[in-house]
Amino acid sequence: EELLLESGGGLVQPGGSLRLSCEASGFIFSDYAMSWVRQAPGKGLEWVSSISGSGGKSYFADSVKGRFTVSRDNSRNTVYLQMNSLRVEDAAVYYCAKVPTPTVGSTTYFQHWGQGTLVIVSS
Amino acid sequence: SYELTQPPSVSVSPGQTARITCSGDALSKAYAYWYQQKAGQAPLLIIYKDIERPSGIPGRFSGYSSGTTVTLIISGVQAEDEADYYCQSADSSGTLVFGGGTKLTVL
Q: What is the nearest CA distance from A2 to chain B, expressed in angstroms?
Protein backbone atom coordinates (compact mmCIF):
# COMPACT_ATOMS: atom_id res chain seq x y z
CA GLU A 1 0.00 0.00 0.00
CA GLU A 2 1.34 3.40 -0.93
CA LEU A 3 1.46 5.82 1.99
CA LEU A 4 2.48 9.45 2.31
CA LEU A 5 2.88 10.93 5.79
CA GLU A 6 3.38 14.67 6.17
CA SER A 7 4.78 16.32 9.28
CA GLY A 8 6.27 19.60 10.42
CA GLY A 9 3.23 21.85 10.38
CA GLY A 10 2.45 24.21 13.21
CA LEU A 11 2.13 27.81 14.29
CA VAL A 12 4.68 30.30 13.01
CA GLN A 13 4.86 34.08 13.07
CA PRO A 14 4.80 36.13 9.87
CA GLY A 15 8.32 36.31 8.49
CA GLY A 16 9.25 33.03 10.09
CA SER A 17 10.33 29.70 8.63
CA LEU A 18 9.09 26.15 8.73
CA ARG A 19 10.19 22.89 7.13
CA LEU A 20 7.63 20.30 6.14
CA SER A 21 8.50 16.65 5.58
CA CYS A 22 6.72 13.91 3.71
CA GLU A 23 7.80 10.32 4.23
CA ALA A 24 6.73 7.86 1.56
CA SER A 25 6.37 4.10 1.64
CA GLY A 26 4.98 1.34 -0.54
CA PHE A 27 6.67 2.35 -3.80
CA ILE A 28 10.15 2.98 -5.24
CA PHE A 29 10.45 6.60 -4.15
CA SER A 30 13.21 7.70 -6.52
CA ASP A 31 11.16 6.59 -9.55
CA TYR A 32 8.57 9.31 -9.02
CA ALA A 33 8.37 13.06 -8.91
CA MET A 34 6.69 14.51 -5.85
CA SER A 35 4.62 17.62 -5.31
CA TRP A 36 3.23 19.87 -2.63
CA VAL A 37 -0.30 21.23 -2.87
CA ARG A 38 -1.93 23.50 -0.31
CA GLN A 39 -5.46 24.42 0.66
CA ALA A 40 -6.25 27.51 2.68
CA PRO A 41 -9.19 27.19 5.10
CA GLY A 42 -12.43 27.06 3.14
CA LYS A 43 -10.61 27.58 -0.17
CA GLY A 44 -9.62 25.52 -3.17
CA LEU A 45 -6.49 23.58 -4.03
CA GLU A 46 -3.33 25.42 -5.02
CA TRP A 47 -0.24 23.74 -6.46
CA VAL A 48 2.89 24.90 -4.61
CA SER A 49 5.93 22.97 -5.83
CA SER A 50 7.16 19.83 -7.56
CA ILE A 51 10.48 18.03 -7.69
CA SER A 52 11.69 15.38 -10.11
CA GLY A 53 12.47 11.84 -8.99
CA SER A 54 16.21 12.46 -9.08
CA GLY A 55 15.83 15.79 -7.31
CA GLY A 56 17.60 17.53 -10.17
CA LYS A 57 14.70 19.75 -11.20
CA SER A 58 12.23 21.70 -9.14
CA TYR A 59 9.28 23.90 -9.94
CA PHE A 60 7.38 26.51 -7.97
CA ALA A 61 4.18 28.49 -8.15
CA ASP A 62 4.72 32.21 -8.61
CA SER A 63 3.16 32.84 -5.19
CA VAL A 64 6.03 31.06 -3.40
CA LYS A 65 8.93 31.48 -5.80
CA GLY A 66 12.00 32.85 -4.04
CA ARG A 67 10.63 32.01 -0.58
CA PHE A 68 10.12 28.24 -0.68
CA THR A 69 12.55 25.52 -1.66
CA VAL A 70 11.91 21.83 -2.22
CA SER A 71 14.31 18.94 -1.81
CA ARG A 72 14.28 15.19 -1.39
CA ASP A 73 16.39 12.51 0.21
CA ASN A 74 15.82 9.34 -1.77
CA SER A 75 17.74 7.30 0.82
CA ARG A 76 15.15 8.31 3.40
CA ASN A 77 12.12 8.22 1.03
CA THR A 78 11.37 11.76 2.13
CA VAL A 79 10.58 15.03 0.38
CA TYR A 80 10.90 18.38 2.13
CA LEU A 81 9.39 21.82 1.69
CA GLN A 82 11.41 24.63 3.27
CA MET A 83 9.20 27.66 3.73
CA ASN A 84 10.85 30.99 4.51
CA SER A 85 9.51 34.54 4.87
CA LEU A 86 6.09 33.11 5.65
CA ARG A 87 3.05 35.31 5.14
CA VAL A 88 -0.43 35.16 6.61
CA GLU A 89 -1.69 34.03 3.20
CA ASP A 90 0.56 30.95 3.33
CA ALA A 91 -1.61 29.48 6.08
CA ALA A 92 -3.11 26.26 4.77
CA VAL A 93 -3.18 22.50 4.93
CA TYR A 94 -0.16 21.33 2.95
CA TYR A 95 -0.53 18.04 1.11
CA CYS A 96 2.25 15.92 -0.26
CA ALA A 97 1.35 14.11 -3.48
CA LYS A 98 2.96 11.47 -5.65
CA VAL A 99 3.33 12.17 -9.38
CA PRO A 100 3.13 8.99 -11.50
CA THR A 101 6.23 9.86 -13.58
CA PRO A 102 9.87 10.64 -12.70
CA THR A 103 9.71 14.05 -14.37
CA VAL A 104 7.35 17.02 -14.31
CA GLY A 105 5.75 18.30 -17.48
CA SER A 106 2.57 18.67 -19.45
CA THR A 107 1.09 15.36 -18.29
CA THR A 108 1.82 15.79 -14.57
CA TYR A 109 -0.90 15.02 -12.11
CA PHE A 110 -1.31 13.85 -8.53
CA GLN A 111 -1.84 10.13 -8.31
CA HIS A 112 -1.84 9.72 -4.56
CA TRP A 113 -2.11 12.17 -1.66
CA GLY A 114 -1.13 12.29 1.99
CA GLN A 115 -3.50 13.47 4.69
CA GLY A 116 -1.85 16.87 5.00
CA THR A 117 -0.23 18.98 7.68
CA LEU A 118 -1.62 22.30 8.91
CA VAL A 119 0.45 25.48 8.80
CA ILE A 120 -0.82 28.49 10.74
CA VAL A 121 0.84 31.84 10.19
CA SER A 122 -0.14 34.32 12.86
CA SER A 123 1.36 36.73 15.32
CA SER B 1 -0.09 31.52 -16.40
CA TYR B 2 -3.41 30.02 -17.41
CA GLU B 3 -6.72 29.52 -15.68
CA LEU B 4 -9.29 26.78 -15.40
CA THR B 5 -12.89 27.80 -14.76
CA GLN B 6 -15.46 25.65 -12.97
CA PRO B 7 -19.00 26.44 -11.80
CA PRO B 8 -19.02 27.02 -8.03
CA SER B 9 -21.87 24.60 -7.45
CA VAL B 10 -23.97 21.89 -9.05
CA SER B 11 -27.03 20.24 -7.52
CA VAL B 12 -28.69 16.98 -8.54
CA SER B 13 -31.15 14.51 -7.10
CA PRO B 14 -30.07 10.95 -6.32
CA GLY B 15 -30.06 8.75 -9.40
CA GLN B 16 -29.72 11.67 -11.81
CA THR B 17 -26.65 12.57 -13.86
CA ALA B 18 -24.34 15.35 -12.73
CA ARG B 19 -22.14 17.22 -15.18
CA ILE B 20 -19.33 19.45 -13.97
CA THR B 21 -17.46 21.50 -16.54
CA CYS B 22 -13.95 22.88 -16.58
CA SER B 23 -12.93 25.42 -19.20
CA GLY B 24 -9.58 26.87 -20.21
CA ASP B 25 -7.66 27.63 -23.37
CA ALA B 26 -4.87 25.27 -22.34
CA LEU B 27 -7.26 22.31 -22.38
CA SER B 28 -7.23 22.21 -26.16
CA LYS B 29 -3.59 21.08 -25.95
CA ALA B 30 -3.28 19.50 -22.51
CA TYR B 31 -4.97 16.76 -20.56
CA ALA B 32 -7.30 17.37 -17.66
CA TYR B 33 -7.48 15.50 -14.39
CA TRP B 34 -10.29 15.36 -11.83
CA TYR B 35 -10.15 15.03 -8.06
CA GLN B 36 -12.89 14.41 -5.52
CA GLN B 37 -12.53 15.88 -2.04
CA LYS B 38 -14.99 14.94 0.65
CA ALA B 39 -15.28 17.05 3.78
CA GLY B 40 -12.25 16.72 6.02
CA GLN B 41 -10.44 14.38 3.64
CA ALA B 42 -7.54 14.58 1.24
CA PRO B 43 -8.32 14.79 -2.47
CA LEU B 44 -8.72 11.59 -4.47
CA LEU B 45 -7.86 11.19 -8.16
CA ILE B 46 -10.96 10.03 -10.05
CA ILE B 47 -10.18 10.78 -13.72
CA TYR B 48 -6.84 11.17 -15.49
CA LYS B 49 -5.90 12.09 -19.05
CA ASP B 50 -9.38 13.44 -19.73
CA ILE B 51 -11.23 10.13 -19.74
CA GLU B 52 -9.27 7.43 -17.92
CA ARG B 53 -10.46 6.07 -14.60
CA PRO B 54 -8.01 4.76 -11.96
CA SER B 55 -8.62 1.31 -10.58
CA GLY B 56 -11.06 1.33 -7.71
CA ILE B 57 -13.04 4.32 -8.96
CA PRO B 58 -16.69 3.41 -9.67
CA GLY B 59 -17.80 3.24 -13.27
CA ARG B 60 -20.40 5.95 -12.76
CA PHE B 61 -17.57 8.48 -12.97
CA SER B 62 -16.49 9.36 -16.51
CA GLY B 63 -14.81 12.20 -18.37
CA TYR B 64 -15.40 13.91 -21.68
CA SER B 65 -13.29 16.42 -23.58
CA SER B 66 -14.21 18.79 -26.38
CA GLY B 67 -12.11 21.73 -27.44
CA THR B 68 -11.33 23.95 -24.46
CA THR B 69 -13.85 22.32 -22.13
CA VAL B 70 -13.69 19.07 -20.23
CA THR B 71 -16.62 17.58 -18.36
CA LEU B 72 -16.82 15.25 -15.40
CA ILE B 73 -19.95 13.11 -15.64
CA ILE B 74 -21.37 11.27 -12.66
CA SER B 75 -24.13 8.92 -13.71
CA GLY B 76 -26.67 7.67 -11.19
CA VAL B 77 -25.46 10.06 -8.48
CA GLN B 78 -25.43 8.66 -4.97
CA ALA B 79 -25.52 10.51 -1.67
CA GLU B 80 -21.89 9.54 -1.06
CA ASP B 81 -20.85 11.50 -4.15
CA GLU B 82 -21.52 14.78 -2.39
CA ALA B 83 -18.12 16.46 -2.37
CA ASP B 84 -15.98 19.17 -3.90
CA TYR B 85 -14.60 18.37 -7.34
CA TYR B 86 -11.49 19.97 -8.84
CA CYS B 87 -10.08 19.86 -12.34
CA GLN B 88 -6.34 20.23 -12.93
CA SER B 89 -4.01 20.59 -15.85
CA ALA B 90 -0.35 21.26 -16.56
CA ASP B 91 1.86 22.91 -19.12
CA SER B 92 5.21 21.81 -20.52
CA SER B 93 7.10 24.24 -18.26
CA GLY B 94 6.04 22.34 -15.15
CA THR B 95 3.36 24.80 -14.08
CA LEU B 96 0.34 23.04 -12.64
CA VAL B 97 -3.03 24.64 -12.11
CA PHE B 98 -6.35 23.73 -10.49
CA GLY B 99 -9.79 24.98 -11.26
CA GLY B 100 -11.58 26.79 -8.47
CA GLY B 101 -13.60 23.72 -7.51
CA THR B 102 -17.26 22.75 -7.75
CA LYS B 103 -19.38 21.79 -4.78
CA LEU B 104 -21.71 18.95 -5.73
CA THR B 105 -24.85 18.83 -3.63
CA VAL B 106 -27.04 15.73 -3.72
CA LEU B 107 -30.56 16.92 -2.97
A: 13
Q: Per-residue pLDDT tens for A36-94? A: 999 999 999 999 999 999 999 999 999 999 999 999 999 999 999 999 999 999 999 99
Shortest Cα distance from A48 to chain B (angstroms)?
A: 9
- Give the residue on A whose Cα is nearest the Cα of B1: A62
Neighbour tally for A110: CB within 10 Å: 27
∠ Cα A96 A78 A72 (to 5°): 95
Read off the pLDDT of residues B55-85 as tens digits, 9 standing for 90 and up.
999 999 999 999 999 999 999 999 999 999 9
Q: Is the pLDDT of residue B7 over 90?
A: yes
How high is the pLDDT of residue B1? 63
Q: Are B1 and B95 a contacting pair, CB within 8 Å?
A: yes
3-state SS class at B81: helix
CA distance B59 to A40: 31
* Rounded Cα gap, residues A39 and A115, in angstroms: 12
Are A21 and A78 spatial neighbours (Cβ–Cβ below 8 Å)? yes
Q: Are B99 and B88 in contact (CB under 8 A)?
A: yes
